[in-house]
Amino acid sequence: MIAVPMQPRGPDIMRLPRLIPAHRMKFSGSALAALLFVVLVSGCGADAPDPAAASGSAALAVALVPVERAAVDRSVSASGAIAAWEEMQLGVEVSGLRVARVEVEVGDQVERGALLVALDGRTIDSELRQAAAALEEAEAALVLARSNLERGRQLRSRQLISTAELDQLGAGVVQAQARVSTTAALRDAARLRLDYATLRAPDAGVISRRDVQPGQVVMAGDEMLRLIRQGRLEWRAALAEGDLVAIQPGMGAVLTAPDGSVVEGSVRAVSPSLDVATRTGTVYVDLPQPGGLRAGMFAQGAIRLGDTPGLTVPLSSVVRRDGYAYVFVVDAKQRVAQRRIEVGRVSGGRIEILDGVAEGEQVVGRGAGFLSDGDRVRVVAADVAAANP
Asked: Is there a contact between 139 and 115 (Cβ–Cβ < 8 Å)?
Protein backbone atom coordinates (compact mmCIF):
# COMPACT_ATOMS: atom_id res chain seq x y z
CA MET A 1 0.00 0.00 0.00
CA ILE A 2 1.20 3.55 -0.86
CA ALA A 3 -0.10 6.62 0.94
CA VAL A 4 -1.18 9.38 -1.49
CA PRO A 5 -2.31 12.72 -0.06
CA MET A 6 -5.84 13.77 -1.17
CA GLN A 7 -7.12 17.29 -1.78
CA PRO A 8 -9.05 18.72 1.22
CA ARG A 9 -12.73 19.49 0.72
CA GLY A 10 -12.78 22.67 2.76
CA PRO A 11 -10.39 25.51 3.48
CA ASP A 12 -10.02 24.70 7.17
CA ILE A 13 -10.26 20.94 7.07
CA MET A 14 -7.19 18.71 6.70
CA ARG A 15 -7.92 15.10 6.11
CA LEU A 16 -5.58 12.24 6.70
CA PRO A 17 -4.15 10.78 3.53
CA ARG A 18 -6.17 7.94 2.14
CA LEU A 19 -4.47 4.69 1.48
CA ILE A 20 -4.92 3.59 -2.08
CA PRO A 21 -4.05 0.06 -2.98
CA ALA A 22 -1.03 -0.18 -5.16
CA HIS A 23 -2.89 -2.27 -7.75
CA ARG A 24 -5.38 0.64 -8.27
CA MET A 25 -2.57 3.20 -8.87
CA LYS A 26 -1.55 3.56 -12.46
CA PHE A 27 1.95 5.10 -13.01
CA SER A 28 4.01 4.99 -16.08
CA GLY A 29 7.65 3.86 -15.76
CA SER A 30 9.02 7.37 -16.24
CA ALA A 31 6.66 8.87 -13.67
CA LEU A 32 7.69 6.31 -11.08
CA ALA A 33 11.38 7.00 -11.68
CA ALA A 34 10.81 10.74 -11.29
CA LEU A 35 9.00 10.20 -8.02
CA LEU A 36 11.85 8.12 -6.58
CA PHE A 37 14.44 10.74 -7.66
CA VAL A 38 12.51 13.48 -5.80
CA VAL A 39 12.39 11.37 -2.66
CA LEU A 40 16.15 10.60 -2.74
CA VAL A 41 17.16 14.20 -3.40
CA SER A 42 15.01 15.51 -0.57
CA GLY A 43 16.51 12.96 1.82
CA CYS A 44 20.10 13.81 0.92
CA GLY A 45 19.54 17.52 1.12
CA ALA A 46 18.54 17.25 4.75
CA ASP A 47 22.04 15.99 5.74
CA ALA A 48 24.28 18.14 3.40
CA PRO A 49 27.16 19.94 5.30
CA ASP A 50 27.37 23.68 5.46
CA PRO A 51 30.38 24.79 3.34
CA ALA A 52 30.97 27.81 5.48
CA ALA A 53 30.92 25.78 8.67
CA ALA A 54 33.31 23.25 7.21
CA SER A 55 35.71 25.97 6.12
CA GLY A 56 35.80 27.43 9.60
CA SER A 57 36.43 24.11 11.31
CA ALA A 58 39.28 23.19 8.89
CA ALA A 59 41.26 26.44 9.35
CA LEU A 60 44.89 25.69 10.32
CA ALA A 61 46.09 27.06 13.64
CA VAL A 62 49.26 29.12 13.12
CA ALA A 63 51.49 31.29 15.26
CA LEU A 64 53.03 34.53 14.05
CA VAL A 65 56.60 35.63 14.62
CA PRO A 66 58.15 39.03 13.93
CA VAL A 67 60.92 39.73 11.45
CA GLU A 68 63.77 40.65 13.78
CA ARG A 69 67.25 42.06 13.38
CA ALA A 70 69.87 39.70 14.78
CA ALA A 71 73.56 38.86 14.43
CA VAL A 72 74.24 36.64 11.42
CA ASP A 73 77.36 34.48 11.32
CA ARG A 74 78.69 35.11 7.83
CA SER A 75 80.95 32.53 6.25
CA VAL A 76 82.29 31.41 2.89
CA SER A 77 81.84 27.77 1.93
CA ALA A 78 84.75 26.06 0.23
CA SER A 79 86.26 22.68 -0.51
CA GLY A 80 89.82 21.51 -0.78
CA ALA A 81 92.41 18.88 0.04
CA ILE A 82 94.02 18.09 3.38
CA ALA A 83 97.80 18.24 3.13
CA ALA A 84 100.85 18.27 5.37
CA TRP A 85 101.97 21.69 6.54
CA GLU A 86 105.52 20.66 5.63
CA GLU A 87 106.43 17.15 4.46
CA MET A 88 110.18 16.52 4.64
CA GLN A 89 111.88 14.00 2.34
CA LEU A 90 114.64 12.30 4.30
CA GLY A 91 117.73 10.51 2.98
CA VAL A 92 121.44 10.09 3.61
CA GLU A 93 124.48 11.85 2.14
CA VAL A 94 126.66 8.82 1.59
CA SER A 95 126.60 6.26 -1.21
CA GLY A 96 127.27 2.58 -1.45
CA LEU A 97 126.42 1.66 2.15
CA ARG A 98 124.03 -1.08 3.16
CA VAL A 99 121.06 -0.43 5.48
CA ALA A 100 121.66 -2.15 8.82
CA ARG A 101 118.32 -1.36 10.54
CA VAL A 102 115.19 0.74 10.16
CA GLU A 103 113.88 1.97 13.49
CA VAL A 104 110.48 3.43 12.46
CA GLU A 105 107.26 2.52 10.71
CA VAL A 106 104.66 4.63 8.92
CA GLY A 107 102.55 6.50 11.46
CA ASP A 108 105.19 6.57 14.21
CA GLN A 109 105.55 9.76 16.22
CA VAL A 110 109.22 10.75 16.50
CA GLU A 111 111.10 13.40 18.41
CA ARG A 112 113.77 15.69 17.09
CA GLY A 113 117.10 13.83 16.82
CA ALA A 114 115.58 10.35 17.09
CA LEU A 115 117.40 7.59 15.20
CA LEU A 116 115.44 6.56 12.11
CA VAL A 117 117.80 4.47 9.93
CA ALA A 118 121.25 3.06 10.65
CA LEU A 119 123.65 2.09 7.82
CA ASP A 120 126.51 -0.37 7.97
CA GLY A 121 129.33 2.10 8.63
CA ARG A 122 132.23 -0.28 9.24
CA THR A 123 134.08 0.94 6.14
CA ILE A 124 133.78 4.55 7.19
CA ASP A 125 134.78 3.67 10.73
CA SER A 126 137.97 2.12 9.36
CA GLU A 127 138.68 5.27 7.37
CA LEU A 128 138.14 7.30 10.53
CA ARG A 129 140.70 5.26 12.46
CA GLN A 130 143.23 5.64 9.63
CA ALA A 131 142.69 9.40 9.58
CA ALA A 132 143.08 9.58 13.33
CA ALA A 133 146.39 7.67 13.15
CA ALA A 134 147.66 9.92 10.36
CA LEU A 135 146.82 12.93 12.47
CA GLU A 136 148.80 11.59 15.41
CA GLU A 137 151.74 11.00 13.09
CA ALA A 138 151.53 14.53 11.72
CA GLU A 139 151.33 16.01 15.19
CA ALA A 140 154.46 14.07 16.22
CA ALA A 141 156.27 15.34 13.12
CA LEU A 142 155.28 18.86 14.07
CA VAL A 143 156.71 18.45 17.54
CA LEU A 144 159.98 17.20 16.04
CA ALA A 145 160.10 20.06 13.53
CA ARG A 146 159.64 22.62 16.29
CA SER A 147 162.41 21.03 18.34
CA ASN A 148 164.76 21.07 15.37
CA LEU A 149 163.98 24.73 14.78
CA GLU A 150 164.76 25.58 18.42
CA ARG A 151 168.09 23.80 18.29
CA GLY A 152 168.88 25.48 14.97
CA ARG A 153 168.34 28.90 16.52
CA GLN A 154 170.75 28.06 19.32
CA LEU A 155 173.36 26.86 16.83
CA ARG A 156 172.85 29.93 14.68
CA SER A 157 173.44 32.16 17.69
CA ARG A 158 176.86 30.49 18.03
CA GLN A 159 177.49 30.76 14.30
CA LEU A 160 177.52 26.98 13.94
CA ILE A 161 174.97 26.85 11.08
CA SER A 162 174.15 29.12 8.26
CA THR A 163 171.09 31.27 7.88
CA ALA A 164 169.88 29.11 5.00
CA GLU A 165 169.93 26.03 7.17
CA LEU A 166 167.93 27.83 9.84
CA ASP A 167 165.38 28.84 7.22
CA GLN A 168 165.02 25.22 6.13
CA LEU A 169 164.29 24.23 9.72
CA GLY A 170 161.61 26.93 9.90
CA ALA A 171 160.04 25.71 6.65
CA GLY A 172 159.94 22.19 8.10
CA VAL A 173 157.81 23.46 10.97
CA VAL A 174 155.37 25.10 8.56
CA GLN A 175 155.13 21.93 6.50
CA ALA A 176 154.49 19.87 9.62
CA GLN A 177 151.74 22.25 10.71
CA ALA A 178 150.12 21.99 7.27
CA ARG A 179 150.28 18.22 7.40
CA VAL A 180 148.55 18.30 10.81
CA SER A 181 145.79 20.49 9.44
CA THR A 182 145.33 18.21 6.42
CA THR A 183 145.13 15.02 8.41
CA ALA A 184 142.79 16.69 10.94
CA ALA A 185 140.46 17.64 8.08
CA LEU A 186 140.57 14.06 6.77
CA ARG A 187 139.73 12.80 10.22
CA ASP A 188 136.81 15.24 10.54
CA ALA A 189 135.51 14.23 7.10
CA ALA A 190 135.62 10.55 8.05
CA ARG A 191 133.86 11.34 11.30
CA LEU A 192 131.18 13.30 9.41
CA ARG A 193 130.70 10.45 6.93
CA LEU A 194 130.27 8.07 9.81
CA ASP A 195 127.68 10.41 11.30
CA TYR A 196 125.89 10.47 7.93
CA ALA A 197 125.62 6.71 8.13
CA THR A 198 122.81 7.23 10.65
CA LEU A 199 119.63 9.07 9.65
CA ARG A 200 118.08 11.10 12.46
CA ALA A 201 114.88 13.12 12.61
CA PRO A 202 115.55 16.78 11.80
CA ASP A 203 112.40 17.78 13.68
CA ALA A 204 109.54 16.21 15.62
CA GLY A 205 106.72 14.82 13.53
CA VAL A 206 104.97 11.78 12.07
CA ILE A 207 106.44 9.30 9.60
CA SER A 208 104.17 9.42 6.54
CA ARG A 209 106.12 7.22 4.10
CA ARG A 210 108.85 4.57 4.15
CA ASP A 211 110.83 3.50 1.07
CA VAL A 212 113.75 1.67 2.65
CA GLN A 213 114.35 -1.89 3.85
CA PRO A 214 117.19 -3.51 5.82
CA GLY A 215 119.91 -4.84 3.52
CA GLN A 216 119.23 -2.27 0.81
CA VAL A 217 122.25 -0.45 -0.62
CA VAL A 218 121.47 3.23 -0.72
CA MET A 219 122.84 6.14 -2.72
CA ALA A 220 123.27 9.73 -1.66
CA GLY A 221 120.05 11.68 -2.17
CA ASP A 222 117.74 8.66 -2.32
CA GLU A 223 114.43 9.28 -0.53
CA MET A 224 114.14 6.85 2.34
CA LEU A 225 111.42 8.32 4.58
CA ARG A 226 108.93 11.17 4.66
CA LEU A 227 108.19 13.12 7.79
CA ILE A 228 105.17 15.39 8.40
CA ARG A 229 106.87 18.14 10.32
CA GLN A 230 105.43 18.52 13.82
CA GLY A 231 102.47 16.40 12.70
CA ARG A 232 100.70 19.54 11.47
CA LEU A 233 98.08 19.33 8.75
CA GLU A 234 96.42 22.12 6.80
CA TRP A 235 93.35 22.53 4.62
CA ARG A 236 94.04 24.06 1.22
CA ALA A 237 90.70 25.52 0.16
CA ALA A 238 90.10 26.88 -3.34
CA LEU A 239 88.04 30.10 -3.45
CA ALA A 240 86.79 32.27 -6.26
CA GLU A 241 88.32 35.71 -6.60
CA GLY A 242 85.17 37.40 -5.26
CA ASP A 243 85.36 35.45 -1.99
CA LEU A 244 89.13 35.42 -1.72
CA VAL A 245 89.41 39.18 -1.21
CA ALA A 246 87.35 38.92 2.00
CA ILE A 247 89.65 36.36 3.64
CA GLN A 248 92.32 37.50 6.09
CA PRO A 249 94.92 35.50 8.08
CA GLY A 250 93.65 34.62 11.54
CA MET A 251 90.02 34.04 10.53
CA GLY A 252 88.43 30.89 11.90
CA ALA A 253 87.33 27.92 9.82
CA VAL A 254 85.17 24.85 10.42
CA LEU A 255 85.58 21.56 8.56
CA THR A 256 83.50 18.40 8.57
CA ALA A 257 85.51 15.19 8.72
CA PRO A 258 84.33 12.05 6.89
CA ASP A 259 83.19 10.58 10.22
CA GLY A 260 80.95 13.60 10.81
CA SER A 261 83.12 15.24 13.46
CA VAL A 262 83.79 18.98 13.37
CA VAL A 263 87.39 20.22 13.11
CA GLU A 264 88.35 23.80 13.95
CA GLY A 265 91.14 25.69 12.24
CA SER A 266 92.43 29.16 11.43
CA VAL A 267 93.60 30.81 8.25
CA ARG A 268 97.41 30.72 8.10
CA ALA A 269 97.96 32.38 4.73
CA VAL A 270 96.13 33.51 1.61
CA SER A 271 97.57 32.93 -1.83
CA PRO A 272 98.88 36.22 -3.28
CA SER A 273 98.00 35.15 -6.83
CA LEU A 274 95.18 33.39 -8.69
CA ASP A 275 95.14 30.51 -11.10
CA VAL A 276 94.79 32.08 -14.55
CA ALA A 277 92.61 29.25 -15.91
CA THR A 278 90.17 28.83 -13.00
CA ARG A 279 90.32 32.34 -11.49
CA THR A 280 90.62 30.80 -8.04
CA GLY A 281 93.10 31.24 -5.22
CA THR A 282 94.19 29.03 -2.34
CA VAL A 283 93.56 29.66 1.34
CA TYR A 284 95.81 27.75 3.75
CA VAL A 285 94.00 26.81 6.97
CA ASP A 286 96.10 25.46 9.83
CA LEU A 287 94.55 22.48 11.68
CA PRO A 288 96.16 22.17 15.15
CA GLN A 289 93.88 19.25 16.08
CA PRO A 290 93.04 17.45 12.82
CA GLY A 291 91.11 14.64 14.52
CA GLY A 292 90.02 12.10 11.92
CA LEU A 293 91.39 14.06 8.97
CA ARG A 294 94.35 12.61 7.07
CA ALA A 295 96.66 14.05 4.45
CA GLY A 296 95.24 13.47 0.99
CA MET A 297 91.58 13.61 2.06
CA PHE A 298 89.08 15.99 0.44
CA ALA A 299 86.99 18.04 2.85
CA GLN A 300 84.15 20.56 2.82
CA GLY A 301 84.19 23.50 5.17
CA ALA A 302 83.48 27.16 5.75
CA ILE A 303 85.61 30.17 6.62
CA ARG A 304 84.00 32.52 9.11
CA LEU A 305 83.95 36.16 8.13
CA GLY A 306 82.42 37.38 11.41
CA ASP A 307 79.01 38.42 12.73
CA THR A 308 77.00 41.21 11.10
CA PRO A 309 73.41 42.35 11.85
CA GLY A 310 70.62 41.35 9.48
CA LEU A 311 66.85 40.70 9.26
CA THR A 312 66.07 37.13 10.29
CA VAL A 313 63.15 34.76 10.82
CA PRO A 314 63.05 31.17 12.13
CA LEU A 315 63.92 28.48 9.61
CA SER A 316 60.41 27.05 10.02
CA SER A 317 58.92 30.25 8.57
CA VAL A 318 60.55 29.81 5.15
CA VAL A 319 59.05 27.51 2.52
CA ARG A 320 60.89 26.63 -0.67
CA ARG A 321 58.78 25.94 -3.73
CA ASP A 322 59.74 25.85 -7.41
CA GLY A 323 63.27 26.94 -6.58
CA TYR A 324 62.19 30.08 -4.66
CA ALA A 325 61.80 30.94 -0.98
CA TYR A 326 58.52 32.21 0.49
CA VAL A 327 56.98 33.34 3.76
CA PHE A 328 53.30 33.75 4.63
CA VAL A 329 51.70 36.88 6.08
CA VAL A 330 48.16 37.01 7.50
CA ASP A 331 45.66 39.73 6.49
CA ALA A 332 42.73 41.14 8.49
CA LYS A 333 40.37 38.44 7.15
CA GLN A 334 42.55 35.69 8.61
CA ARG A 335 43.80 34.59 5.21
CA VAL A 336 47.43 34.04 4.31
CA ALA A 337 49.29 35.65 1.45
CA GLN A 338 52.37 33.98 0.02
CA ARG A 339 55.28 36.39 -0.35
CA ARG A 340 58.46 35.67 -2.25
CA ILE A 341 61.71 36.55 -0.45
CA GLU A 342 65.46 36.44 -0.98
CA VAL A 343 67.38 34.58 1.71
CA GLY A 344 70.96 34.75 2.91
CA ARG A 345 72.93 32.93 5.60
CA VAL A 346 71.62 30.45 8.15
CA SER A 347 72.79 31.04 11.72
CA GLY A 348 71.59 29.56 15.00
CA GLY A 349 68.27 28.19 13.72
CA ARG A 350 67.38 31.44 11.95
CA ILE A 351 67.78 32.49 8.34
CA GLU A 352 68.68 35.91 7.01
CA ILE A 353 66.13 37.72 4.81
CA LEU A 354 67.77 39.96 2.23
CA ASP A 355 64.61 41.21 0.50
CA GLY A 356 60.83 40.77 0.57
CA VAL A 357 59.88 41.71 4.14
CA ALA A 358 60.46 44.61 6.49
CA GLU A 359 61.63 44.64 10.09
CA GLY A 360 58.73 44.13 12.52
CA GLU A 361 56.38 42.42 10.05
CA GLN A 362 54.57 39.32 11.30
CA VAL A 363 54.95 36.07 9.37
CA VAL A 364 53.73 32.55 10.01
CA GLY A 365 56.24 30.83 12.29
CA ARG A 366 54.93 27.24 12.44
CA GLY A 367 52.94 25.25 9.95
CA ALA A 368 54.02 27.33 6.95
CA GLY A 369 54.79 24.21 4.96
CA PHE A 370 51.11 23.19 5.01
CA LEU A 371 49.80 26.51 3.68
CA SER A 372 48.88 27.75 0.23
CA ASP A 373 48.21 31.27 -0.95
CA GLY A 374 44.72 32.37 0.22
CA ASP A 375 44.19 29.70 2.88
CA ARG A 376 42.09 30.64 5.92
CA VAL A 377 43.94 30.27 9.24
CA ARG A 378 43.40 30.77 12.94
CA VAL A 379 46.08 32.85 14.67
CA VAL A 380 46.93 31.38 18.07
CA ALA A 381 49.72 31.63 20.57
CA ALA A 382 52.99 29.92 19.76
CA ASP A 383 52.56 27.20 22.41
CA VAL A 384 49.06 26.37 21.13
CA ALA A 385 50.29 26.10 17.56
CA ALA A 386 53.08 23.79 18.68
CA ALA A 387 50.57 21.53 20.43
CA ASN A 388 48.10 21.60 17.52
CA PRO A 389 50.09 21.75 14.28
From this structure: no
